[in-house]
Amino acid sequence: MTEKLTHTPSHAPSRGPRSLIFETGAPESRCVMPPAPDVPGIDLDEALGGALRAEPPLLPHVTEVEIARHYSHLASMNFGVDSGSYPLGSCTMKYNPRVNEDAARYEGFAGLHPYQPVDSVQGALELMVELAADLGEVAGLPGVTLQPAAGAHGELTALMCFRAYHVDRGDARRKVIIPDSAHGTNPATVAMCGYEVVTVPSDEHGGVDMEVLRAALDTDVAAFMLTNPNTLGLFDPNILAITDAVHAVGALAYCDGANLNAIMGISRPGDMGFDALHINLHKTFSTPHGGGGPGAGPVCVTETLAPYLPGPVPYRRGDGTYDLAEPALSIGRVRSFYGNFGILVRAYTYLRALGGSGLREVSEQAVLSANYLKERLREAYDLPYDRTCMHEFVLSGSRQKRENGVRTLDIAKRLLDHGFHPPTVYFPLIVEEALMIEPTETESLEELDRFADAMLAIAKEAAADPDLVKGAPYTTPVRRLDEAGAARKPDLRYRPEE
User: How many domains does the chain have?
Assistant: First the structure.
């Protein structure tokens, strides 16, 4: 009988039960005591035309120390890259260097207003111009817009540029091809741009099935969208043949840059034949990620497509100063102002700190970490594609489900008891009981070994005591939740007892 883990591991945050803030304090408690007003008072109900509510709002009455402890406790209940390993496949949740945060908080950046005259924001424009040039060099695609606010937004921007390009040529194409391992945002973007989605399967090695792709390509295809390395964490060795075949029918090749963390400084999508690439700065270039933002998804394109980019685009004048200009055939703005500037500052700092050789080392470390974990775990879990992976890899919990009734979800929940955020589960959809693991380059060998040891321990538990794993987690503030119910019928309102 496997001993049940009933304590919180030493590396996990303290997350014990605590009263709700509405259950804390007293009616006479105050957090702030402002000075007496030095202006005449007014009748608020009269000023609002009798619209003042009959009863005061239900607000907690707490002291400053109580509210400070309340929010500190809430923070300790969260899990993030600062509290433990976050091997979330496809999302690149790596540690964010604090120097990036310091740079973004400089008064000369943080205090800017987007409507300031260009002559008063020369430093910000210089940063944007240099960042765009650096990203273009990393991508091998010289035309760059920094406007898009996220990866999916970058996809949409690139496909809109593709559409404008085809329309200008009088070429009314109707279809966009995507692989079956694509991110879910890809088909959504295709549909939003008015195209028909055509899906091609993966071959036995996890790459694009070339025979099916060639059969699907015709003069009605506007583009082919591909993540390379793909969502299985595999680099497609046929990439040059793929882009050549796409271009042969007059279509354009789009690279989803979600997995750029595996190849930057080593290979460039532009050199692979791609016409456009979006870059998730909030993933690859180590800025905050998750929780709904913030984000940035710049798009890099060929010289041919550069005139279609959204404007305005910052540029360097002949006299060395900086200004904004509208590309000749621009699709128009895709975001307010000029992009998520705080994220751009963080990404610029990250690039400047590492340089070209540093970016290559990031990719090499990410790939090494993933292959190390894959080799440690391959005997305990099924490995659908037995190839050298890139920065992430996909395991399957099919064996545990088949032999012991333990699902991938149960394995993920049990990892919480070991102090790890679970990897992505049940994606990509083409792998049954998928566990998609991305350790990133920021985790030490000791941390990788702790994660591997936890996964191996769970595999043994699944065989010896399946109910133990199926009952996890045991150390979290709440136990197993009705996740489908929480997603479909969320209850987010506090209701005091009558």
Answer: 2
